[in-house]
Amino acid sequence: MKTLNLFFGFTFLCTLFMGCTKDENDKEKIVEITIYPETGYGASMMSDIWTQPLLFSDNDENQVKLLVDIITDGFDFDYERGYEYKFRAKKVWMQEPPQDVFSIKYEFIELLSKERVIINDSEENINLFVSSKTVKFTPDYPSEYVDEENITPKIYDALNVKNTDSDNWMALTKIEGFNYETGYEYVLKVKKITQAEPYSVKYVLLETISKENKN
Predict the structure, then answer these.
(1) Of the residues 116, 150, 166, the one at which a domain ends
(2) Which letter does DSSP use for residue 131 in this model?
(3) DUF4377 domain: from which residue to which, for each copy (predicted)?
């Protein structure tokens, strides 16, 4: 029994030492994080269902990214589209991150500011490329459910589109005036209408520039 106790004690010390070593190897830096007033589109590594992740950047990289599959500790706030948020946070490069997440995590320190930056309604004409295949999509802003108990999220077969001037894909449940046919790729001229209060975005078809059968 004494030998067994010594074994468990040794194992505990080894585990503790390894944990300390791991923590000591984690690189840390204080950064400023910006959460942007409009959300993006994308899916987690473990899912094929698209959602609307927040868009963020930190002043260490200055690169706008989707806030998905990234650990965030202590960021307890109610996000509102149309507002820009700035936080001070600890950025940690984890030497041994959990599976299926990125190796960087952020730990909340303080909220620096919350500023409403989309204050005026706006319209712009853009060209959208529409893929021949749809994607599974569940909205987050606002969330939609198939029942009144708010248990099962509603999942759409959404249009997979991108601005022809951008590489950022979107999942749209509707383009007003557009009748989509599966298997066809389109280039559409649309009007993007942004309403500031309450925040909303919609797309209205102006012209079908091209339609190509991809089957």
Answers:
(1) 116
(2) -
(3) 76-114, 157-211
Phi, psi for 3 (deg, rounded to 5) = -60, -40
> Mean pLDDT by 10-residue block, N- to C-terminus, for the chain (215 residues)?
35 43 74 98 94 97 95 94 98 93 97 98 98 97 85 95 97 98 98 97 98 94
Question: What domain range includes position 86?
Answer: 2-116
Phi then psi for residue 38, to 5 deg, are: -120, 145
69 shares its domain with 101: yes
Whether 134 contacts 175, CB under 8 Å: no
User: 97: exposed, middle or buried (C-beta count within 10 Å: 0-12, 13-18, 19+)?
Assistant: middle
- Using DSSP bridges, classify how beta strands 169-172 and 49-50 pair: parallel, antiparallel or unpaired: unpaired
